Every structure is written in C-alpha cells, then in structure tokens.
C-alpha cells in the first residue's frame, strides 16, 4: 500500500485562492512544485463557477467570503478538502466560530497568519494614540491653531488588555515612547517584557482609572465577550483614548456610544467591530472623536508578503507529508 508521502508525489494538488491577490502571489504558489494547479475564486465569476472551483480544492488559501457560513458550506460540500489557510485576523476569528465538526472535523488542517500581523496592528494602535495626542482630527480641518497645545505619550500610562503577539508588540512600542505599561491577562501570572505591572482580569476596574491609553488586543472567548461594557467604560478616564485592535465582540458598542456621549473616554480608535463591518447607520461614524478603520489595519503590503511566505513554506511541508506550522 502506498504511503501518504508516496501518494502525494504521484497526484496533482489543487490550490484554490479564495481571496483577491495579485498575479505574483498566484505565480509564487504555482512555482512551489510542478504538481500544483492553482484556481482562483474570482468574485466576478458566476456563483456556480465559483462553487465548481471550490469543489475541486484540496487546499484553500484565504476563506471565501470571510464568513463562518461560507467555511461551513465549504467543509460540507468538499470531501477532498484537506487544508484551509486563513489570510487575516478577521478571517481567523470567523474560522474559529465556524462549525468545523462533523464530516470535516479531523481530516482538515487549519492554519492562520500566526503572529505575522502583530507589527501592523501594534503600529496602528500607536498611530491611534498619536493621532489624538497630536490633535490630528482637529488640525486636519482647522485653518488656524487648534487652540490648545498637543500632548505627549511619554509619561502617560498605557493599559493593554491581552498579551498575545499583538499586545506584546504594543507593549514594546509603548515602552519605546516612554510610557508606563500596564497589562491585563486572564491570570496575571509571571512577568512580561516591556510591562511594568501585570495584573489578572479581576483588577480591570482598578487599572482603568489610572490609564491614559487603553488598547484592546483580546480574542473573543466566553470570558472576554463584552468584557469592556458599561461597568468598565464608567471606570475609564475622561482624557483616555481607547483603541480596539482585538476582536470587536470584546467591546460593547452601545455602552461605548453612551460613554462617549458622557465624555468617557475622550476618543476611540476602532479596527474591529462586533459585526463583520460597522453598519453605515452606526452613530460612531458621525462622532468627531472616533477614528475608524474597516478592519484592515493588518492589511499591509509587508503583512501580505509575510503571510504568503508562511503559506508557501507550509505548502512545501504539505507536499513532503510533514506537519504544518501554525496549526489551529
């Protein structure tokens, strides 16, 4: 009987690119091995044609439609599927919430961007803090001086909720700006680089009143869902800036609106929302002290290149029958 490695050497491997990419990415995937056939899940194709392409996939690079329902349907309809790679953090969170039980469970490997997005998201968090410290919104529209001096990040206290790859990078950058860095994790155990004080989640109410900047870098779990709600927002300083580069479900948007209307916090920077996108009718869109990114802060040229390199390195491992790096 042929081994898994021998069978891989004898058969074609179909990779479906499920998200928009440039031709260089497609070419790089094709050049990995002569056995690879690359199909594109082109949004301009008719739905039936897109489904035919997906039905042939052994590997999918980028979750089509970026929805749990789309992934669930893919798992249900494609018995040949063996590996799905999420290309961004939003897709990764949706992959986690998709129904991967049943027929697809066990036979399909899932990988994601790992920590490759940490630098981009941490830079965006610091940009948000700098934007309001330097009065970017006011000075962007004002023809004359904004009327009061700018502030500095140095000497301010930065609170980071979550110390995964993103939170750890925010801590490093915050410390480089001369900030005092506090961090909250579930247990608060141990010590972390660039963190002056690490506390467990139960002390959130004590840390918020002393923090000039609050950065959310948490995934969505049963413990973190709605963590920053009415009670937490009531503890935030009136001069604090709140940034969310974690999962949108961690932050209660209705409580946030009420807090902003009452002056707590003074400003908000959002790259994540409880829904896939912030609704057009959301009052947050019209607030002058709210900066919004449509969940694209990690979508940089460098991040996309790193993610493609990660996928290609794993593709070579897959063809050799080796374990994939970064499996979920």
UniProtKB/TrEMBL annotation:
Signal peptide: none annotated. One of its GO terms (molecular function) is oxidoreductase activity. It comes from the Bacteria. Residues 142-297 form the D-isomer specific 2-hydroxyacid dehydrogenase NAD-binding domain. The keyword NAD applies. It holds the Pfam family 2-Hacid_dh_C. Keywords: NAD, Oxidoreductase. SUPFAM superfamilies: NAD(P)-binding Rossmann-fold domains (SSF51735). The keyword NAD applies. This is D-isomer specific 2-hydroxyacid dehydrogenase NAD-binding domain-containing protein. It comes from Arthrobacter livingstonensis.
């Amino acid at each position: 009987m042929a081994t898994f490695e021998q069978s891989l050497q004898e058969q074609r491997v179909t990779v479906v690119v499920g998200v928009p990419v440039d031709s260089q990415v497609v070419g790089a995937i094709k050049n990995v091995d002569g056995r690879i056939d690359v199909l594109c899940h082109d949004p301009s194709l008719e739905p039936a044609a897109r489904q035919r392409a997906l039905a042939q996939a052994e590997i999918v690079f980028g979750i089509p439609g970026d929805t749990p329902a789309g992934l669930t349907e893919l798992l249900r309809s494609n018995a040949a599927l063996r590996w799905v790679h999420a290309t961004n953090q939003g897709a990764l969170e949706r992959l986690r919430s998709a129904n991967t039980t049943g027929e697809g469970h066990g036979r399909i490997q899932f990988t994601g961007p790992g920590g490759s997005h940490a630098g981009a998201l941490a830079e965006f968090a610091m940009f948000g803090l700098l934007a309001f410290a330097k009065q970017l919104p006011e000075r962007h529209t004002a023809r004359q001086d904004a009327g009061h001096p700018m502030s500095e990040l140095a000497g301010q206290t930065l609170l980071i909720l979550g110390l995964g790859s993103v939170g750890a990078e925010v801590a490093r950058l915050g410390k480089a700006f001369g900030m005092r860095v506090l961090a909250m994790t579930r247990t608060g155990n141990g010590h972390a680089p660039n963190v002056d004080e690490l506390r467990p989640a139960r002390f959130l109410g004590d840390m918020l009143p002393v923090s000039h900047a609050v950065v959310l870098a948490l995934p969505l779990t049963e413990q973190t869902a709605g963590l920053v709600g009415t009670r937490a927002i009531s503890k935030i300083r009136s001069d604090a800036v709140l940034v969310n580069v974690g999962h949108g479900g961690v932050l209660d948007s209705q409580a946030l609106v009420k807090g902003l209307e009452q002056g707590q916090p003074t400003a908000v920077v959002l790259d994540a929302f409880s829904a896939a996108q912030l609704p057009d009718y959301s009052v947050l869109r019209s607030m002058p002290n709210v900066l919004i990114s449509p969940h694209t802060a990690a979508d940089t040229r460098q991040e996309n290149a790193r993610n493609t390199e990660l996928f290609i390195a794993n593709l070579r491992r897959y063809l050799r029958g080796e374990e994939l790096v970064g499996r979920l």
